[in-house]
Amino acid sequence: MWKIALVDDDFQVLDGLRSIIPWEELDAEFAGDAIDGEEGLKLIEEVNPDIVITDIYMPMMNGIEMIERLRARKFPGRFIILSGYNDFEFARSAIRMGVEDYLTKPVTVEQVRQVLAATIEKLEDSYLSSIEQTKLSRRDNAGEPASEEDWLKSAIVGAGSMDSLQPAPEGWRDSRPIVLVLELTKTERVKGISVADWNLFKFAITNIACEILERDVPKHGFAWLYGNHAAVVLDPDHGLTESERLAECRRIGHTLVEETGRYLDLKLRYSLGEPKSSWHGIRESADEALKRLLTEDESNGAGQEAAPVPVLHQKHRKAIEFMIEYVHENYAEDITLEDLASRLFISKNYLNQLFKKTTGETFTNYVIRVRIEKAKALLSEGKYLIYEVSEMVGYQNVPYFSTLFKKYCGVSPSDLFKNKAK
What we know:
Layout: E1 2-7, H1 11-20, H2 23-26, E2 28-34, H3 37-47, E3 51-54, H4 63-72, E4 78-83, H5 88-96, E5 101-104, H6 109-124, H7 126-141, H8 148-157, E6 178-184, H9 195-216, E7 220-224, E8 229-234, H10 242-264, E9 268-272, H11 282-294, H12 311-330, H13 337-344, H14 348-359, H15 363-381, H16 386-392, H17 398-409, H18 413-421
Parallel strand pairs: 1-2, 1-3, 3-4, 4-5
Antiparallel strand pairs: 6-8, 6-9, 7-8
Helix pairs in contact: 3-4, 9-10, 15-17, 15-18
Organism: Cohnella cellulosilytica
Main location: cytoplasm
InterPro entries: CheY-like_superfamily, Homeodomain-like_sf, HptR, HTH_AraC, HTH_AraC-typ_CS, Sig_transdc_resp-reg_receiver
């Protein structure tokens, strides 16, 4: 069985993760938890888990420092970051250390399941991966040059400085690169899909991207970073001005978005880094593109020209959007703020304050209003009796339903029913 350890200074998050991880489905077991990086370090060295889910901002020692120390000690496990903030500097550090995914709270049960399943699939392939790493290590020790693909990925996301990287392959030595970072947006189209299908989507996106790049840019490179992010290294015609080269890269970004949407019905976003004068600037350009993408509002589509929005605001907006969507889809069920708080890993009181600040009303009132509006529409159809409508919108107590209905609509459901009958 795969051992999973949890590190977070919020007890509610730890309890929530323990309850929502589908242990049996993943053939996994709970390996223990810790409330800060120091405790996490001791726990991980003691139980040697396969996967660690960790927060970043914690007392004593933060998550990034804990991962760095474990990596320095050659800990072979996989890391998944679950953070309350979409912080660029920490996201960049996570990429450098080969973190499997960087999730921003709030997350859904399905997101946690999907990321863990994908990570376990990689662990299952670890034998073949270790064989390949052994080959690469032997080749490096023998002084043989890395392949262009290996070199490019190291230039984008590798640990250490660019100066420690092997010399650039011949085709990149005189390059003036611009890095474009892509994000596969997790829409309804990809929600709940299997790990195998997720990998097929990534494979298909890679094929489309490479076909477009081979057609439009003589010198290019493509590499998946982490989770749903990929990087494209571009080196447009040096005879163009910098503004013209950037315009060409934007055109390619839009083409990637459009073609992926047309052929796969998938939504991509992209952002560009600044042009660099040599291959030594590849990593810096990638960081610039990633930072812009992480601070842009998803509603702005492709995103290159989007205005930055506060990341914390974006996190809160997503939580409220999830709550509203959930109410409209499940108004007939027993909906509680406690349940949603556990799903979103946010305390109940804070979530209610956040909802009221954003919508202007409490969550309880919003649920009642949605139910009453639905009840009003059902009664207007004249097909159902009052007690039937009451049950259809989540109220088993008909007198209570009638009281709420009159309070919100100004008339009782029986009056509305009589008027419709006439």
